[in-house]
Amino acid sequence: MTFEYRDPDGALLRIRPLPGISAVLIETGPQGCAVPADLMPDVVAGARDTARTAALRDDLAGPSEQPLAEVLRMVAEYVVESNDVGGLDCNDLADRLRAAGHPLPGDEEGETR
């Protein structure tokens, strides 16, 4: 399952499962994607559904959902902040996730960006 949202300016937010691991990739363009506050529940639900699909696909008896819930909370906070404040890009989200102990797939151990 892939969740996609396109803002009125045509910017795309895409959330899709990563093959082989219980994780999702959150993609936006260089300028990010403006998600209106009233559509945030749909975006969070799309992210949650995509993450559940990835977790179920990889391991029906997978690890606790607590790390997933934390990541989804961080993503939702990032999207709201990027809409309310601006000046954020996907690297800011990636840095926050790494700092919280959720490195992105492909990150080298101990690598900082």
Description:
The chain has 113 residues and is an alpha+beta fold. The protein has one domain. It has 3 helices and 3 strands, in the order βββααα. It has a 3-stranded antiparallel β-sheet with strand order 1-2-3. A hairpin with a 6-residue loop joins strand 2 (12-17) and strand 3. Helix 1 (40-58) runs antiparallel to helix 2 and helix 2 runs antiparallel to helix 3 (90-99).
In short:
It is built from 3 helices and 3 strands, in the order βββααα. A hairpin with a 6-residue loop joins strand 2 and strand 3.
Alpha carbon gyration radius: 14 Å
* Count of the separate structural domains: 1
Beta strands, count: 3
Distance between the termini: 29 Å
Oligomer: single chain
The shape is globular
Spell the H/E element sequence: EEEHHH
Compute the number of helices: 3
Task: Report the helical percentage.
Answer: 40-55%
Helical/strand content category: alpha+beta
Major β-sheet annotation? 3 strands, antiparallel
Q: In order across it, which strands form the biggest sheet?
A: 1-2-3
Integer average pLDDT: 75
Strand content: 5-15%
Q: List unreliable stretches of 5+ residues.
A: none
